[in-house]
C-alpha cells in the first residue's frame, strides 16, 4: 500500500510539473515578446519600454539564454520553490502566493463543504421524491443554478442580504460573517455540478438488479436508496471532485473581485490586468497542485467506498 | 390442500410515452402447498411480469389494471406498502434471474444475507451473522465462512445463484418465486443449482412458482406446467400430460421447437412436427475445406481479486471441417470455443499452430490478403442487436460486402439485395427498414444474408441462435440447413447448447478449458459419448430425463425416468 | 459491451433484451411538444436576431445618453432602466449581443474544431498518437478552464476576439475527451467488427461508421460548450479583459453597474438575468438533443 501511495504522489508531482510546463510554453513560447508584454502591463508608458529594464528582466527570467536552458533553469527553480519575481511588485512570487493563500483557503474550504452537502441533499431529495412535480422541481434546480454567472450570483446575494436585509457584509474580509456570502456564491455552481452527477449516478444505481433484489427481500424504497443505491452512486461524484475544486479555485478570481477580498483570486485578477506573467504562472502551479492533491485523496478513499474500482488499482499498481 | 398462491384474472399493462401495452391479459393460476408449478413462455409472453406482479415489484411503467393475487387467502394487491414489505422476503421468497448483477457488488455476501434476517426480525447482530453462514452452508457452498466475508466478484455464477437462493429461503417462506434462476448459467452448473433449489424448497415444504423459457427445465422440475403466450395462459396441466399430449397448437409448437425435446419427439412423432427437421448426414467423403493444427492462444486477464493471470484459451486445438458439412463446437463458458471461432475467422491471432483454408496457410495473413480472404470466409455473430449498424437500411447492410469488394454497380447490387432477402425468407419490403424496426429473428436473417452476399465457402456462426426465442431458433436452424443444402456451404457452428448442436451438426467437437475433449459424428457422439465430460454435458441438458433415455429401447415412448 | 469482444471469459448467457450499447434516438416529436424546449429555441433565435439587427429591436442608443436621464429605474421608456451616463441599459445589452455572441462563437468554433480533430486522431489512430494526446489532455484538465483562459489573456492581451480565442483553447480538452471516447466506443462496437469482416478498410470504417455516429454527440456538446462559453466570456469581460469602454459587452456592463449596486440594482441584476436566460436556454437545447437517463 505504501508503494502505491508513493507512486501516486510521484505521479501527482509529475502532473503539476507538466501543467506548469504547458503554462510556461504558453507564456514564453507563444509569438510575441513576453518582456514587452510584462513591462507594458506593469505601469510602463504605452509604447516606450526602457531597454535597460527590459534587459534586466530578460536576464532575471533566464530568457536571454537558449529556450531549453531557460526552461530547465526555471524548472529547477520550481522544484526548489522559487517561482521567480513578480514584475509589478518586485517581490518573490512564492512569497506573494503564500501570503495570499490563507484567506482563499478558508473561502474554498467553506465553499466545498457547502457544495458537497447542498448537492447531496438536493440529489437525494430528488431521487427520494414520490410526487412527480416535486422531483421535477428539484431536478430543475441544478441546471438553473449552474447557468447563472458567478459574478451575478454574488452581486444578487449582496443586493439581497447586505443591502436589503442588512444581515451580512457586502465586502471585505473581516470576521467570519464576511466569508458567508462569498462562499455561498462559490458553492452554487459546484453544488449544481455535484448534484447533477449524483442524480444521474443514483438513477443508474436504482435501476440496478441488486436494488431490485434488496426490495424483493423486504427492504423499503428509502432504505435501498440510501444504503444500497447511495453507496453504489457515491463513486461518481467523488471522481469529479478534483474538477469541481478546480472550478472553485478559478471561481475565486471572480468572487474575490466581486466581494473585494484579498486572496489568490484577487492576486490573479490583478496579475492578469498587469500582465505580470510570473505571478500568473505561479497561480497555475497552485491550481494544478490543488487539483492533483484532491484527486490523490479521492483515489485513496475510493477503494473503501466502492471496492470494485479501488481493488484492481491498489492491487495491480503494486506489481 | 388449499392454494398458497392464487391468481385471478390478472391484467397488467405497460405505459409507454405514447402507447399502452397489455403485458398480462387476464390469467388464472394456482400453486398449491408444496407444489412446483412452472410458468413457461417465450419473451413477451408476460411470465416475468406475472412473477413481478405477485410481489408487487413491477417496473415504474407497469401497473396492475385488474384482477387479484391471493397469497394464503389475502389479496395482496390491496395491501399497504409496510404489510407488503413484510411479505417480500418473508412469506414470499424471490430468486432473481441474473447472478451477475442481482447481488450488491459492494457489500459482502454475509452482510447481504443477514440483511434479510434483520429486516424480518429473525436475528440481529452476531446471531444474524452466524445464521447467515448456516444458510450458506445449506445451499452447499464450500467454506461458507469464507464466502460470507467475500464480495460477489470472488464467486462464480453458480455460487452466486446459490447465495440468492439462500437469501430467498432465509425467512422460511411459504412460497418461492424463481424467475429464470438458471438462464445465465452453464448447463452443468444449471443442473446443480436447480437440484439445490428443488431440494431446499421441498425440505421447507414451500410452494414454488418457477418461471422459465426452457421447457426442458419445466419438464424436469415441475409438477404442473402453465404455458403463457402474449399475456394469456394458453394451456396448463400436469407436466407429464401436457408434454405427452399437448392440446393447444402453441404448446405443440413450443415442444416441437424445444431443442432438447425435439429430436426424439421427431423420431417417435405421434403428431405432425412443425419444428426442426432432423438433418441427414451427407453421403460420401468430402475434401477438407479448413483444418487447424495445434492452435494455441493465451490471454492475460485480471482475476476477480485484481491480480493478472494467464488464461490458456486454446490448448493445441486441431480440427477438420469437410466441405459442405457442419462442424459443431460445443462447450461451456471458458471452453475456448468462441476464441477458436474468432481465431479461425482471423479476428484474433493465435500464438502458435496453423490454420489451413483450402490448402493455404491463412494463420498469418494481415492487411489486404486478409481482407481478400473474407470473400470466402464470413461470420455470423451471436447478438443480432449489435452486429448490425443501426443507422444503415437493410439494403445497405446486406450490400455492404459487395460495396467493399467493388462487386457490380448500384443497380445489380440492389437486385442482389432483394435476392439475398428472398434466400433468407424475408420480404423485400424490409430493404428500406432499419434494424431497430426488426425483430431479433429478422435481424439475424439479415446478418445471415449479409454473410452470404459474397457467396463464401465457409460460414463461421458463433452462437447464432442463443439470443433468440425457442420457436424463432427452430426456424433459423431450418433456414441454415436449407441454405447449406442449396449452396453447398460449410459451417463452423459454435454453441453451448448441445440440443441445438444435435440438430445441425454432422460432426461435433467437444471443448473444455481450451482443449478438444472428444470428436466424432454427431449422432454417435451424442448417443454414445465416450469421454466423461461429454456424458456430463449430456446429462445436464434439461429435459434430458424425458428425452435421452438410458437405452434406445425406450426411445419411442419417451418415458420419464 | 458485447460477448465476442471480451478478452477473458466468453459468456454463455442468454440475452433476452436489446443491449444498452445502442444510443437512444432524439425524440423530435416529444421535443416539439415540450414548452421549455420551444422557449429555449425562441430565446436563442432572439439572441441571434439581436446580434444581427439590433436596431430593429430597440430604438435606444447604446453609446450616448442624456445625463438628465441618469439612473432611472426600469420603466416604459427604458425596459432595463438607464445607467450613470443616462444610456439606455436595454439598448446597450441588445447591441452588446453582437460582441458577446462573436466571442462565444469563436470560442465554440475553436474548442469544437480543435477538440474534435484531436479526439478523432487519438481515438482512431491509437498507439503513440493516442498516448501523447491523452497525456496532454490529462495535464490540461489539471488547470481550471478559466485560469487557462486568464493565462492566455495575460499573454495575448485584451479584447473580444482574444477572449473568444482564450476560452476556446481552454475548451479543447473537454471536446477532445468526449470525441475520443465516442470514437473508441464505435470502433469497439460489434457492427464495426462485422464491417471489417465483410471487407471494410479502416478508411471506410472511419467514413461510414465512426464519423456519422460521432457527429451527434459533438453537436450536443457544442451547444453545451456554447452555454459555458457564454459564462466564461462574460466572466472575463466582467473582470475587465474584454472590449474597452464605451463598447457595450454583457459582462463589463455588470461590472460598471457594480458601484451603484445599492441604489441602482437594475444595472447589474437585469443584464445578469438575461445572460442566465441565454445559458439556461442553451443547456435545455443541449439536453433535448442528447436523450439522457435521469432528467428527461
* Oligomer class: heterotrimer
Basic shape of chain C: elongated
Task: Kindly state the percentage of residues in helix of chain C.
Answer: 55-70%
As a whole number of angstroms, the C-alpha radius of gyration of chain C is 23 Å
pLDDT < 50 runs, ≥5 residues of chain C: 1-22
Low-pLDDT segments of chain B: 264-278, 547-561
How much of the residues of chain B is beta strand, in percent?
25-35%
Major pleated sheet of chain B: 6 strands, mixed
Q: Roughly what fraction of the amino acids of chain C lie in strands?
A: under 5%
Structure classification of chain B = alpha/beta
Relative helix content of chain B: 25-40%
Shape of chain B: globular
Which whole number gives the mean pLDDT of chain C? Answer: 84
| Distance N to C terminus of chain C | 24 Å
Structure description:
- The complex is a heterotrimer of chains A (319), B (561) and C (296).
- Chain A is built from 15 helices and no strands.
- By secondary structure, chain A is mostly helical.
- Chain A is globular.
- Chain A has helices spanning 2-29, 34-41, 51-61, 67-80, 93-128, 132-147, 150-164, 177-206, 209-216, 221-233, 235-239, 241-258, 264-273, 277-305, 307-317.
- Chain A has 2 domains: 2-79, no CATH class; 101-262, MetI-like (MetI-like fold), CATH 1.10.3720.
- Chain B has 561 residues and is an alpha/beta fold.
- Chain B contains 21 helices and 20 strands.
- In chain B, a hairpin with a 4-residue loop joins strand 1 and strand 2.
- In chain B, helix 7 (187-204) packs across helix 20 (532-540).
- The longest helix of chain B is centred in the middle third of the chain and has 18 residues, at 187-204.
- By secondary structure, chain C is mainly alpha-helical.
- Chain C is elongated.
- Chain C starts with 27 loop residues before the first helix and ends in an 8-residue tail after the last helix.
- The chains are: A mainly alpha (319), B alpha/beta (561), C mainly alpha (296).
